[in-house]
């Protein structure tokens, strides 16, 4: 068996066609003197090659040879075109092109408490592909360009396995345990309540360009049940490491998910900050003041999350509950109710943080309405408003924000 690549085989095939044309031209040249002796045999050879019938011999042998050369040029051109078409078809199947899509999301905001007007958003470019039947390999990369001129990566992962089980590695988001539909703008006054997403993924990056380790194993259990066990390893002061198993159930309009976060927060070293704005003069020496922050030890924390939604047709109801302890040992509980009514989203979140002395509470509402932009496919404009109020020892001013999101998928 010949060990040829597709490119090599195509090149040899085209070279063979060029050689046939050259041979015919030489024969035609020789036929000026020996056509009556050689032409019948030559014609029979090319008749078989071109699969033609009919008489070869006439009194104008040279004219016939020129005609035969023209026919061979046409046949060689057909061979070239066929080879190139075959090469393109085989390449398309053996080396499938990625799926490319992009979208822009631009938020124009106004927020109270002297925060004023601002813009945020990104242009998102996605490249993805999945190949294989019994066994598959998939991958996705999402590149971002932001209004401040910076660029970044949202997703960058590889996945491989079968229909019943697979493994995903890289930068991605694991299963969602706290759904927030219509979250164009979400204000939290005082503190952000726990939402069982510490180990969900997209943990940031290190200074050397690498990122924390993140992997997930997905197993289909049957009957609408699936299990995802993801793990994160984040080094450095305060980094979070741990496991996050999530059990999902989906059956028609009903979806439920429950999970646990087993987190280890890395400790921090003692730090000293020098105050260079003023000094104490001792003799002829100026001594600057300093502030020392004590080292902290590593701590283990556990969190829980439960989410569910049910689609009634034109209305979808959502409910979330999350509970856990923060790194500073504050017990947190968060409850949320949301509704999607066509293009309208209504949402409320109630969070509480408890310590030994008193409770901090935060209540947040938001409303968003997605408006299709006339008949432009993939384009919509979404006005939204959010309001938040807090109470307790760490009470903060009410937070209110308005936003207009322009989204276009192209």
From TrEMBL:
Instruction: Provide the protein name.
Output: Porin
**SUPFAM superfamilies assigned to the protein according to its UniProt record, in alphabetical order:** Porins
